[in-house]
Amino acid sequence: MTTRDPDEPDSLVSGEAAEYRALTEAIRDLIKVMHEGDIGRLEVERGDLRISLTARELIAPPTNGVQPQIPPAITAGPPPAAVPAPAPVVDDHLYVVTSPMIGTFYASSAPGERPFVQTGDEVEAGQTVAIIEAMKIMNEIVAEQAGVVEAILVTNGETVEYGHPLMRLRPLS
Length: 173
What we know:
Shape: rod-shaped
CATH superfamily of the largest domain: RNA polymerase II/Efflux pump adaptor protein, barrel-sandwich hybrid domain
Helix content: 10-25%
Keywords: Biotin, Fatty acid biosynthesis, Fatty acid metabolism, Ligase, Lipid biosynthesis, Lipid metabolism
Domain Lipoyl-binding: 94-170
Protein name: Biotin carboxyl carrier protein of acetyl-CoA carboxylase
Pfam families: Biotin_lipoyl
GO cellular component, one term: acetyl-CoA carboxylase complex
CATH architecture of the largest domain: Beta Barrel
């Protein structure tokens, strides 16, 4: 028993059926070429056969007369220099290193590496204490003043927001 294409007209005999299948396969291939090549219109002529294909345009939803503002493209440049984290005072003796941006907190320069700082470590002013990854760029977070790390307030790989407290330091002087 043979299987029949449900789209194939009943009146076709076996030779015409093969020709019909070849033609529909060729049309599918042309549609694929149009889609992959971003082609809007395609015409093919062969003997007395002419095929004309036109891609449908996508209809955008109504905008109520307001066009969305598209920000300018950001061009890649050199990675930013170390960003000093603001250091708001928590009490008379401690200050907090906070995140200057939204991103992912990393305690070390690479997985499995020793953390930049640990609780109890002495930190110098300008020393890197963490990294915040934002948009695939690693931004060093530096201490604004010397101190001893009292507490690290986030875990490695945690997402942080602008101003999010990262660690508390007790000043040396």
